[in-house]
Amino acid sequence: MTKSKNSSKSMVILTLALVVLLISLFFVTKMSENVDRDTAIKNMPSLDNQPVIGKSSAEVTIIEFGDYKCPSCKAWGEQVFPQLSKDFIDTGKARFSYINTPFHGEESKLGALAAESVFAQDKEAYWKFHKQLFDTQPRENHDAPWITTDVLLKLAAAYAPKVDVKKVEDDTKNQKTLPQVNIDEGLVQKYNIQQTPSIMIDGIMVKNPFDYNEITSLINKR
């Protein structure tokens, strides 16, 4: 009888210990998630003087590291961004920023220099210029030279009518907006960006920028 009581007592203690262990693991996991989230937010790039669309009060910040010469960036802008904008930016859930990542040589830098000039003069017109520059990228033989000063000035005149095109020309040819491009390149190095497009959501890099389910999952977790 005593042996049976001791056995029952041991089972109760073991069960209680297991419950305590499970509760502890639960809180450790939650604390870890909070630390990861806080770390991600603290380590996000500064968006001071960067192009941003969406409400400043948005809960989530999405950043694209992109290159105007990059065909995958063009594809992402056509295939993913419109739905992302409709679902999250237009609804006020997220805001979106673009950081120049000139991986494709002098043409990439030329496009970034012109875009920075447009942005400095007219922040709203920047986004029209930005989209049209990607739209101008040829679908075939995109490695051939196509980002030229003439192309950039025509786009600025057509899609940013309030912008001083002569200033865009001067900023581009004489690299007067190079400091802004250098800031972006510094962020590219800091965050070890290896490919374009790279998409960051509240400091967390998306594994596959074309996986919309992954993107929505990360946004909805914030």
- Report the average pLDDT across residues: 86
Largest sheet: 5 strands, mixed
Q: Strand-and-helix sequence, N→C? A: HEEHHEHHHHHEEH
**Structural class by sheet pairing and helices:** alpha+beta
CATH architectural group of the largest domain: 3-Layer(aba) Sandwich
Work out the number of β strands. Answer: 5
Low-confidence residue ranges:
1-6, 12-39
Name the strands of the widest sheet in spatial order: 1-3-2-4-5
How is this structure best described in words?
The protein has helices spanning 2-42, 71-79, 81-89, 106-121, 123-136, 149-159, 165-173, 178-190, 212-221, and strands at 52-53, 60-66, 94-100, 198-201, 204-205. 59% of the residues lie in helices and 10% in strands. Residues 1-6 and 12-39 have low confidence and may be disordered. By secondary structure, the protein is α+β, with helices and mostly antiparallel strands. Helix 4 packs parallel to helix 6 (149-159), helix 4 runs antiparallel to helix 7 (165-173) and helix 5 packs across helix 6 (149-159). The protein folds into 2 domains: 1-42; 52-221, Glutaredoxin (3-Layer(aba) Sandwich).
Topology:
Elements: H1 2-42, E1 52-53, E2 60-66, H2 71-79, H3 81-89, E3 94-100, H4 106-121, H5 123-136, H6 149-159, H7 165-173, H8 178-190, E4 198-201, E5 204-205, H9 212-221
Parallel strand pairs: 2-3
Antiparallel strand pairs: 1-3, 2-4, 4-5
Helix pairs in contact: 4-5, 4-6, 4-7, 5-6, 6-7
